[in-house]
Write a structure and sequence with these properties.
Strands 1-2-3-5-4 form a five-stranded antiparallel β-sheet. The protein has a three-stranded antiparallel β-sheet with strand order 6-9-10. It has eight helices and ten strands. Helix 3 packs across helix 6, helix 6 crosses helix 8 and helix 7 runs antiparallel to helix 8. With 306 residues, it is α+β, with helices and mostly antiparallel strands. The chain has two domains: 194 residues, Phosphatidylinositol 3-kinase Catalytic Subunit, Chain A, Domain 5 (Orthogonal Bundle), CATH 1.10.1070; 94 residues, Phosphorylase Kinase, domain 1, CATH 3.30.200. The protein binds adenosine-5'-diphosphate and magnesium ion. The site of magnesium ion has 3 residues, from loops.
Amino acid sequence: MICSISYYIKIVFMICLLSATELVKCKASFEILDPSYDQKNIKIIGQRNKKTVYVIIVEDQLYKEKYCVKQYCLADKIFDSLIEILISGIAESANVPVNRVKLIPAEVFFPGKFYKKRMATLHTFVPGKSLHSLHYDPEKFSIQQFKKERGIFGITRTIINFMSSSPNLSQIAALDTFTGSQSHGGGNILFDEESNDFYGIDLKKAFRKNLSRLAYENIKKMDAEKLFTSCQIDALKIYRDTLKKLIARNLPSDICKKLDALVKTTNLNNKFVPATRKCKVMIFQNYDSAQKLIVLLGEIIKKHTK
Ligand SMILES: Nc1ncnc2c1ncn2[C@@H]1O[C@H](COP(=O)(O)OP(=O)(O)O)[C@@H](O)[C@H]1O
Ligand SMILES: [Mg+2]
């Protein structure tokens, strides 16, 4: 009996340890955004600038946490930054391994902020190299659910196969389905060779498509054509369970309210009226279709376990 109690204590300890590891890599305290925080502790340690975006890596020397300060070169891209914050909040509700994103308001000075008077976003720095730089073949190893150029319109069996190689990928794929996100091509999925974990970054291209409806149609068709393998079913279970959490914790009306609040912070409400309207339509459509998708996945999983 004593032995079995210590065994259970060990298990609980391991679970705590595992969630703590996840906490460190994906989340952060964001204490550095507090107005009372002494910004002298924040040091610029690198940059990953691209033609269209400034990404400055900073380190909080007090808590030893790394972050990226991101700003698009074009002021028009502010809406994309707001979407990144919105999607990060949704991801956080279901513990999906993508970077967490917070707003650095326009008027706030922050080390690494390139355009001082424009808003920026602060992202937790995630470890690893992109699948693209690790030369993963996008035809076989990708979870991107919409890519016209490659003829990808919704989830495919190849995507499900890749999802089966790590629970992280099924979770990110579920987030993408629920939020109609198209960003997670090989450049925006990082693989950490130390922990064997995958992380998503770059959350801007969301609520542009109803990927939940496409997933419903594609999975229904796949199931009719050929039974899913055990590995594929395991991946679909994590995908379904993550979708369930996302649905339960993110009502479409709440997502819309959060979007409105974010738009309001910019004082550019009028400019973003059409984009906000389009986005809201997609929020509701994806949510409705995701509910149907969960029922379908439940039937498929049940059939497999019989
Ligand atoms: N949270 C992050 N952690 C680590 N690296 C990041 C993070 N965010 C961005 N980067 C780096 O900056 C690059 C550009 O950022 P990304 O968000 O993909 O911008 P874009 O919208 O231009 O594609 C990425 O390819 C990656 O190298
Ligand atoms: Mg990118």
